[in-house]
Hints:
- The protein is 28% helix and 23% strand.
- The chain is α/β, with parallel strands linked by helices.
- A four-stranded mixed beta sheet has the order 2-1-3-4, with helices on one face.
- α1 packs antiparallel against α2.
- The longest helix has 19 residues, at 80-98.
- The chain is globular, with a radius of gyration of 15 Å.
- The protein starts with a strand and ends in a 16-residue tail after the last strand.
- The relative contact order is 0.22.
Amino acid sequence: MPFIRVGYLEQQYGDKELPIISQCIMRALREHFHVPEDDYFQVFHAHKRSEFYYSPHYLNVERTDKLLYIQITLGSGRSRDQKKAFYRRLAELLAAECEIREEDVFAVLMETELEDWTFGKGIAQMIL
């Protein structure tokens, strides 16, 4: 049940790259968190320079303007090892499929509980 938001600096990614980025994220989620293929909810946000900030050297990671912020809200329950493997695979896929530097892949997982979701109709489908 992940909901994904991806932020990036405008003009850095376009109609060619965004579908590939989307599929890479879903592939890593399916491989490491066993997310069903049709559990697919993503939004992409291009930001003006005045809306997009980052530290180019924090924790000795050299970032560029190609930085992707990937925020994934999902149900809790994944192990630390699963999360580490997911982050690694996500960076590998984006590097291989989109030529995005691994240093420019910034991801955060935000865990929620089943009752925190509705997929429409005002119903908490995950706790019926």
